[in-house]
Amino acid sequence: MNVMIVGAGGGIGRALLELYARMPGIQRIYATHHRPVSSCASTVHWIQVDLGDPDSVAALAQQVDQPINRWICCSGILAGAHGQPEKTLRQLAAAKLQHDYQVNAVGPLSAFSVLAPRLRDTDMRAAFLSAQVGSIEDNRLGGWYGYRMSKAALNMGIKCLAIECSRWRSLPTIVAVHPGTTTTNLSRAFTKTRKEPVQSAAACAAQLFELVESLVPEQSGRFLRLNGQSLPW
Ligand SMILES: NC(=O)c1ccc[n+]([C@@H]2O[C@H](COP(=O)([O-])OP(=O)(O)OC[C@H]3O[C@@H](n4cnc5c(N)ncnc54)[C@H](OP(=O)(O)O)[C@@H]3O)[C@@H](O)[C@H]2O)c1
Fold this sequence. Notes:
By secondary structure, this protein is of the alpha/beta class. The protein contains six helices and seven strands; from the N terminus they run βαββαβαβαβααβ.
């Protein structure tokens, strides 16, 4: 079995990579990183990708030469060079919204599209890490415009993918997943004052691994929590 983990240099992605690297029967793991990473098992083939750069995403096609049976996209941004999550309309900046949209929605969907010929093997399962705050129906607090809008766009892309790919001869299972609040670089600054316990990246990855390995085609097109419960889109 071959696995692709996009964003394998991040908190959840790296912990998941280590679980797949130990799984019996794994032949190749394609792992994308953005900033430099230290290596892992010999089955891991690292590929540098900038999801903010369409040319970098397009180049993926030349670097993946095996059929992929598991696609797990663990990339994403909440804050960065373009600024912090917006608390009010006054903080909206077009450049940040566009960058969030490119990295969180356009990049992951384009990467899947570029590799679609490699994603048609039997029992292909794809999970894209989204976020509950990307649910339009569930939005009660507002704010975080760029992150919420880009994750809502990602969610729509995943739903479209699941519908289109259900017409493939070998039926894939494609889902959006909310990983739950997890201590990583992405969340650290926003969870310091949180009273409820926050899960570690290793605990999150263990549940994500179980979820992906138990997915069935009937779940395709859903937005799931790690325990398999559905969230509203
Ligand atoms: N942590 C949470 O509480 C939480 C909650 C809900 C949803 N999520 C979602 O879970 C996913 C994983 O997040 P995480 O918590 O593991 O965060 P993380 O540790 O910051 O990992 C995010 C990954 O995305 C990569 N990335 C960022 N910009 C990129 C770019 N332009 N091109 C390619 N890769 C890029 C990062 O690479 P570099 O670091 O090298 O830039 C990193 O590997 C994200 O989709 C996030 O939205 C997380």
